[in-house]
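Full entry
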Amino acid sequence: MARKSLCIVIVLIVDCALGFSFKLDEDQNELKWPTEYSIRGEITDLFTGIIKPFEFWYSNELNRSRIDFYGGIVKKYYFAENDEMNGQEYTIYPKTTDQMTSEIVCDEEIWEGEHFNLLDSAKNFTYYGKTTYNNKEVEIWKYLERDDDNESKEEKTLYALKTKDGVYVPVLQEELKHNLWSGALDGHTIIQYFNFSPLDVEELNLTSVEACRDTIKGEQSSNQFKDLHVHSSTDVDDAFLSFKMQHKRNYKVDEHEMRKQIFRDNLRRVKEHNQKNLGYKLTVNKFSDMTDEELSYLSATRPSDPRALGSVAFPHTEEEVELLAQDLPESYDMRIEGFVSSIKNQGSCGSCWAFATAAAVEATLARNNGARNLDLSEQSLVDCAWGYDNWGCKGGTLDGVMKYVLKHGIPTEEDYGLYLDENGFCALDNMTDLYHIRGFAQVSVLSVNAMKVALYKYGPVTVAINASPIMQYKSGIFYDPDCNKSHYNHAVTVVGYGVRDGATYWIVKNSWGDDWGQDGYILISATNNNCHILEEAYYPIV
């Protein structure tokens, strides 16, 4: 796939009226920052087009720092106690209940190494002279790191303003990552700084962290749900090098061998499977250097209430289903009729339940309005559906999110805002156009013909499957008798069915990007309820 070009015009606003001074090292050939500061800016990844506004506070004396994204929607606190080289990270984010009021929840993680300083990357920069930037004279500092073992090079260029008091103010930093073997550019990031100012130490008080700790202690004693995000030799070397180039991997030196071993194990599994000439193929893909724990965010669908049958009953008895099935076409694919929207990517958020539901509602609406496709907001479900057995980026339930959509509806992404890959504040009060469903029904459990009838008569169906064996799926009809040995954990959307060599299969839309599987889809065998696909299936009614 050709890389999309991205043109970004960067406008910098530098506030030079700082009115404060810091003690600076007398060696003016060494770039140094103050030991306490606050700063605002934006991080732009030119490869993905994601722009993250941030505000950052730092104190070396207190061993604390804090970074807020998107105006404080997500807050991260870092601190080490007693000058230790490791400490805690607390991430605080919102969840929204059925009453459309938000409460704040948080996660805890232990981290190692130096306390987090946004400007630590400026260490070991070399002075390269001066230039004019936005009508101001700024200094140019550069940093180059070459890793011949991994055949990579990282280049950073920093533009900094030196005030009359001798303090450096960062203006712009550009980071380039190169692959020395291919000459390709593997990464391109720009950090622009809007303001650099003295620290208000109150911004680093631990009131929120202490409340967060209390919440976590309470959850550990009473909540059954745990954090889903916790994170020949020559032939292998050549394959791993190609993998790193294709997927733009740049590992730390002490991480490289671990990633290579994971890759080697997955490569062996792929080759051994494909040599068996079964009905489907595996491949090395973007997940092939990750552990099961790191990939757990991809599979975050929880069991629904076993008493849940939908807001309305499935309208056909078993006898009626068998009669209707006799008149169904042998194959049916909603994509051909233009009802199905493009493949999306849930990123690092455990929001498969939101993507599967939005995809089903989008296609059902398209079937009823002349194939006019809508791009509905998965982010609104992540932000707002907490009161319905859903937990934002930590997962959700298929019946719960359907109940939420039935009551509150879904706005378009254009109205609500782009997908953040984070938990956010619910902004549904600002929406004027919401797309509702009249109800939802559960397809008769374990019935292939009931699923086919539902797809042909009513539209796409959200289902829960065990996704653990399909991470490296490439093509063909997936059937693995071991898939049912573990419980289901991932939500996807069935958009049709077909027959190949006498075997019926389901056409399944995933939310892992169009570079996974068959252009973002997987064909799953209809035999023996493979991967639990017939146990929990719902379709929306509009």
Confidence is low (pLDDT under 50) at residues 1-27, 220-231.
